[in-house]
Amino acid sequence: MRFGGRLVVSMALVMLCGVLVAWLVAQAVGPGVFRDHMERASHEPGSVAAHALEAFVSASTATLAAALGAAVVTSLLAGFLVSRRVASSLRNTATVAAQVSAGRFDVRVMPPGIGSEFDELAGAINAMAQRLGRNDAMRRRLMADIAHELRTPVATISAYLDALDDGVEVLSPATTEVLQAQASRLTRLADDLGAVMRAESGAMPLDLVPVDPHELIELCAESLRPRYERSGVALVTEVRPGTPRILADRDRMGQVLGNLVDNAVRHTPAGGTVRLTAEPHGAVVRFAVADTGDGIEAEHLPYVFERFYRVDVARDRGHGGSGIGLAIVRALVLAHGGTVSVLSPGKSMGTTFVVDLPARPDGPRWHPFSRGH
Ligand SMILES: Nc1ncnc2c1ncn2[C@@H]1O[C@H](COP(=O)(O)OP(=O)(O)OP(=O)(O)O)[C@@H](O)[C@H]1O
Ligand SMILES: [Mg+2]
Fold first, then answer.
1. CB 304 within 8 A of CB 326
2. How many angstroms is it from 177 CA to the middle of ligand 2?
3. Domain assignment of residue 38, given as a range
4. Is 359 helix (H, G, I), strand (E, B) or coil?
């Protein structure tokens, strides 16, 4: 019940108590007083009216006094009980809010049970504490991950610089290459972190225009084809006729598909195939990047979109990956109002990433013989 309802009920109970006391007192006192006065009137001829009036006044005074007294006592009692519970609930809430603001996110407010508004307030404060706790844990983990990622290249660079300084190493093309590789790894890490932060906070402006999925896919495939040819992996593209256009930022969606297709080639041995496709699927356009490569075991699947998550840390870091690519993919797809998911039957059985983006309502559909809509 809401708090206002409870207050109305307690007021009604106070009134009821007054009425009940009035009735009881009137029943108990009234007849006796009347009988007494009538008896006295029978001994004093001519005084009936005066006695009746006196009986009425004293009976109603007694009734009124008792009823008012009972109402005052019960309303004081009800006021005291209600205000005590309200005050203790507010004190409790204030204490928890102060603890949360001091950085303790594991504290919770007990629902006071004095009206649904108070329970809702307790629920909202608890949800806020939980959310802040989760953000705080994420922030800590992110800092630890960044520090960890920075350590290796920075340690390598400074070890080489020390060796050059001591004359143990000379500045040969090989040394320069190592230093450059580590420096570019740091630059890429900074760029990727910046991109994922901007996309996740919604601060990345999207230049949304109607985009033809066919054009998007071909552009992505063309830019990565040399890498595929070098790795001996076949890249197949296919857009189902009738696939509608989407409202998207061309560069950002290019980045999404690029990251997925880049991962696919890295995880597919020579002789394998990567299929990059788009098709209509209800109200969305479904993009898929399916490879016949390493696959991902079920236990890792729920985490691959997390920042810095790599299935095989040594191997994945070995090729320069820091595990941010898929976090960028997810943030960008969400910013476009879409969803991204991953499927894999298991190790060495291939992986499929699926990106669903809302189809542009009543936009023209792509048809193999009518390009350029
Ligand atoms: N197609 C795939 N097949 C098998 N495993 C994959 C595939 N795509 C991603 N993964 C796994 O998911 C992890 C996370 O991918 P993500 O793109 O976020 O990071 P990365 O490629 O290692 O580094 P980055 O993209 O930052 O260079 C990878 O390290 C890899 O273990
Ligand atoms: Mg990647």
1. yes
2. 23
3. 3-102
4. strand
- Ligand 1 and 260: CB distance under 6 A: no
The Å distance, Cα 80 to ligand 2 centre, comes to: 65
Q: What is the pLDDT of residue 360?
A: 82
pLDDT surpasses 50 at 370: no
pLDDT of residue 141: 84
- Residue 308 backbone class (left: φ over 0; alpha: ψ -120 to 50; beta: rest): left
CA distance 308 to 255: 18
Determine the residue of 192, 260, 263 to mutate for testing ligand 1's pocket, defined as the one with the most ligand atoms within 8 A of the Cβ atom. 263
- Measured in Å, residue 267 CA sits from the centre of ligand 1 at 8
Q: What are the pLDDT digits (tens) for 115-172?
A: 899 999 999 999 999 999 988 988 898 888 888 888 888 999 999 999 999 999 899 9
- Nearest residue (by CA) to ligand 1, atom 8, is 263
* pLDDT for residue 319 is more than 80: no
Nearest CA to ligand 1 atom 27: 321
Residues 86 and 184 in one domain: no
Which amino acid is residue 313, in one-letter code?
Answer: V
Report the nearest-CA residue for atom 13 of ligand 1.
Answer: 310
Alpha-carbon distances of 362 from 46, 148, 185, 246, rounded to whole Å: 103, 48, 44, 10
Domain shared by 352 and 218, yes or no: yes
Assess whether 217 and 315 both reside in one domain. Answer: yes
Which token pair is 126? 């608890």
pLDDT of residue 371: 43
Binned at pLDDT 50, 70 and 90, residue 313 comes out as: confident
Q: What is the CATH number of the domain that holds 147?
A: 1.10.287.130
How does DSSP classify residue 110? P
Indicate whether 318 pLDDT > 80: no
For the CA of 192, the nearest atom of ligand 1: 26
Question: Does ligand 1 come within 6 angstroms of the Cβ of 272?
Answer: no
Could you give the number of structural domains in the chain? 3
